[in-house]
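Do me a favour: review this protein, sequence plus structure tokens, and tell me how the chain folds. Record follows.
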Amino acid sequence: MFRDAAGRPADIFEVLADNGVNSVRIRVWNDPFDASGRGYGGGTVDVERAVQIGQRATAAGLDVLVDFHYSDFWADPARQLAPKAWAALDDAVTVTALHDFTADALQRFADAGVDVRMVQIGNETNNAIAGHTRAGRAIDEQFAALVSAGSAAVREVLPGALVAVHFTIPETSGRYAEYAAGLARFGVDYDVFASSYYPYWHGTLANLTDVLSQVATTYGKKVMVAETSWARTLEDGDGYPNVIGASGTTSQYPVSVQGQAWELRDVIAAVAAVGDAGVGVYYWEPAWLPVGPADQVEANRLLWEQFGSGWASSAASAYDPLHVGDSYGGSAWDNQSLFAWDGTPLESLRTFSYVRTGAIAPRAVVSVEDVALTVVDGSPVELPAAITVAYNDRTTEQQTVTWSAAADWIRGPGKYEIPGRTASGLAVVADVTVAAADHVVNGGFEDADMGTWRLTDPAARQETADAAAGDHAVTFWSGWAYHTSASQTVTGVPAGTYVLQATTQGTNSPGTDTRTLTARTSEGTWSAPLEFTVWNDFHTASVPGIVVGADGVVEISADFALSAGAWGVLDEVHLIDAASAGGAQPVDKTAVERALATAAAVDRARYTDASLAQLDEAAAVGEVVLAASRASDRDVKDAAKLIVKAVHQLKAVKKR
């Protein structure tokens, strides 16, 4: 259920219109059902359902962009599957089928009175459309014929509507220029060149304006952003993991409603900076809300399956086994909605109005700088003396921080949280990662010097938002079946037992492909499989028990034999000693756990702030000792004693 600003039940399209939205983008899938009629999910939006949505939008005074995916399910750069009905057609017949499907669908929109102002021919068609995959980036004849067929259908049925093409990854140098030149070379008829732009992955807004301006001025086209978004929280609303979590965000904006407003405002400004050719921005997806809370995930699964309200149902697995498989489920986008999870519009939705009218609000803190640092085991942990505090007027200021002495209790590799408080009283937390000493040189590929690595084509070090950590990784893709690898000879490793680790993600790689992480020493060979599942789903493979002899040499390699169209990322390759990887003798920490439970049960309303601050400091020490991989028995005893003492020294608030 959606609500208006007062919390009353309301029609979503009327709420959108009331908040300054004037157009909605509706995706269309050809046949999102299996043979028994079960819907694939994601709203199961076929033509019939899309027309119904369009009628509701038109009734609220909104115009409509019809977004044809030319697939039975999601289409994006990683997948452009042919509709089931077109799978066996040759190229020429597919062109005809695409034209006829487009014309028939648009006629149904027109007959229903839907105000269609723009039609998108394909969705994020970087490499393919309607099952036709190009071998490289250049536009080819069949791709142009398919887009032209869709465009011709629009001209025939809705001659007043604009025709849009849609691409993504604008940050790659020359990409959009090559696409636009190819479309022009084949004489493709279209009006609008549309781009996706997500700050997590797609470079700077200045670059976005530049590449869109180049298309607009060179080819006389209108331009727009067809998709953008920002996270307002890192919490999960429905129990299905979100695409954007703590590791997926970047520093451009705070993760908040204010951050959403800033991001949307800036993207609109970037398109407006193109000039009159910049025609608009669509936010994707503002209203994909949870069907139930995260702690009721099993009940949610039933709803996702019954109503297709998750990103995919089990019915879609057979159609798209590589990308859906067993990963079907709920909304992976609910933390980027412009509505609260109860359906109430957030203030960020008002951005569509505010970009026209302006807005002023009382100055308030909207974010505090995230403090995260990684140190090698044995190095000092140096927390910043001051951090940046951001306000809703887009100003910032530096505030000094007093950090907990719990940092002094860090012992060994692990992840630690160290609390602190700014001079103005804001609570902050520093995330400290203590990494084991690593014998792989440039294992995260952040250093441009790749002299220690041996890469075979098409594997290459790239700056990419698809890295597991940092800004760089080794990536690879080919339109043909191929072999590729990354290897290094590691020397000077002290004799002992080690673990080799590597993190990967990838798509379009069936189980018949081979992906292997291997270590070879004078004492033997050890290996483990590397996983590719779906985009942005990272897996870390571990090869334990590697014995290094007196020569100190380890040959490491990641080897891939992949199918045509398979894409992958290799990152964070590490060789660490077995003890640092969890092989140390464990210490009984029950005493600390009990003491922390006692501290958590305290009724804080009864005690003074000063005595509670002492308790919080002791509890912070306890949490660090719990996280410490090399905490001693003495550490456990001392931390537990500190917490118990702080509980006993709590001072009651004096009654007045």
In short: The first strand starts at residue 23 and ends at 28. The mean pLDDT is 95.
